[in-house]
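Re: Re: token formats

Sure, here are both.
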Amino acid sequence: MFASQSSFIMYDEEFKRIQAVLEKLLRESNSKAIFLVDKNGQLIAASGAVEHLDATSLASLTAGNIAATGGLAKLIGEKEFSILFHEGEKDNLHISIIASRVILVVIFDHRSSLGLVRLRVRKSSEELEAIFSDLARKIAEKEQKGESQSPFSEITDDDIDNLFS
């Protein structure tokens, strides 16, 4: 299970499904790298040539970018801009908001095109939205059963005191 600061828990089953969607998107869009980030700037998952990138900075800056453009959207009467595109000399970024809570970042170069990336992202977005919907349902069911979603809920103050005594 993967805990994120955005107040939800990522279970292994959903994480594997997300990773499979990202890997499929990477292949089908002929992209270099793909990141899934929460709106607080925490990296959820990544696929592709990510080893040469500072994923922590990318996640944080992407969330900041979404927040900044959200402010611009409100200024002109929009809720938010759901898709952003940044074109560079060698690499391009396609950024989209999924299920109103996570950000999909696709990095691609001349081997792909914006049209292909947009087409493949649209299909992947539907799959990711379904996964996050399943995750929300699973969390709600656990809460109804009285099961806490926190991985630390079973730790008591006495346990902490005993650990440091």
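Second one below.
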Amino acid sequence: MDNLARLHVHDSTTTDAATVLGVEGSEVLLATERGERRAARATSCLVQPMAGDEVLVVTLADGRLFVLAVLSRAEGNEAVELRVEGPLRVAARTLDLDAERGTMRFGTLALLAETVLAHADSARVAVKAVDTFYDRLSQTVKSCFRTVEETDQLRAGRLDYRTEKEMLLRAENVLAGARKLVKLDGEQIHIG
């Protein structure tokens, strides 16, 4: 029976199944046939072990232990966390992520893409400051509502506003000035 639990890969290297007692920093505390042992997580073991999980452990000739894989999750440990100590790079021809809900947290995020296409039923964005730079910006909306509490400033080489019905400007003071020409044209012009 002992031969089933322990496979001899080389004369001095063995693999065993063990139960995780806990995780302390980068070390995994294990319950093995030889008692409690401490192991490091192998670089290829991306799944973070949790207390109660059954794991595959290799013991090297020099006595070091590594958790190679999480074999089964303990009841109540449904979440799977992929964890690496250093940078993680995923390279693929195509990458699809599919989930009912998602959360992303980054200290800094750089997104580089030739094309970005996003579809959503609704979106809410809360940002303290936004700076955007475009060669061309085109927007089509059904209704647009903006509230600016302090200053709304536009500087343009040319400005063209066209409406099919009314254009309404209301303010405590309206100042209009031109260096050369001011022209008002309409069937009726009411001043005052």
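Strands lie at 6-10, 13-24, 27-32, 35-41, 54-59, 65-72. The chain has one helix and six strands.
- S.
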